[in-house]
Amino acid sequence: MGNPDDRRSDAVKEPDGGVIQRDKGQRARSLRPNGTHAQPGVGRHEVPGTIRVSEYHAYHHADRWNAVDTPLRGDEDIDWLASDEWLAYDVYIQAAGRYELTLDVAAADSFGGGDLGIVVDDDPLRRVEFDATGGWYSWDEITTEIELPRGTHTIRLVVFEGGWKLKQLALR
Question: Coiled coil where (predicted)?
């Protein structure tokens, strides 16, 4: 699912055996946002809680099919998250502590699984890899724990290896 050495960067964190990369001298992210779309009017999400994937406040695409900066569509899920995309969610975390993050994902066997990083503000927390789920509508829950600070923050899901779908994320 991608060799971290191919990204020519230093490992930042290694919880759960995964790493999130940080480019030398840069903050944690996949690419500089040259195709970023903001969704005005999307409110801040309360944590603990569940966030539908389409309720992001900003989305970065790496020339998704020569797309212009238009919002992603999808009431239930977003099709085909691609490598080097990210989704950002504004959140209010009611209490500092360890939270269980659950992602509802689907990936066809022919495309394999996925690889994503979880970043709070600009601090990389966790890298999560998962296998194919058996089809585009065969959903699996991927769960990991992350430590979150109290207050207003931005949670960003950075896609390192794409070709899968995301329905929602829950923080409990």
Answer: none
Tokens for 27, please give them. Answer: 């903050």
Backbone angles phi, psi at 142, to 5 degrees: -105, 125
- Alpha carbons 160 and 69: distance in angstroms, whole number: 21
Stated pTM of the model: 0.76
List the structure tokens of 57: 């406040």
Q: Return the SS3 of 119.
A: strand
Query: Is the bond preceding residue 15 a cis peptide, omega within 30 degrees?
Result: no
Q: What is the CATH number of domain 36-171?
A: 2.60.120.260
CB 13 within 8 A of CB 124: yes
Longest dimension (CA), the chain: 41
What pLDDT does 6 receive?
33
The structural domains of the chain, with segments of one domain joined by +, span 36-171
- Rounded-to-integer distance, Cα 73 and Cα 59, Å: 12
Q: Strand, coil or helix: what is 7?
A: helix
Distances (CA, A) of 98 to 18, 71, 146: 18, 32, 6
**Residue 158 pLDDT more than 60?**
yes
> In the Cβ-directed half-sphere of 88, how many Cα atoms lie within 13 Å?
20
Rounded to the nearest angstrom, the gap between the alpha carbon of residue 80 and the centroid of all alpha carbons in its chain is 13
Give the pLDDT confidence score for residue 40 in this predicted structure. Answer: 66
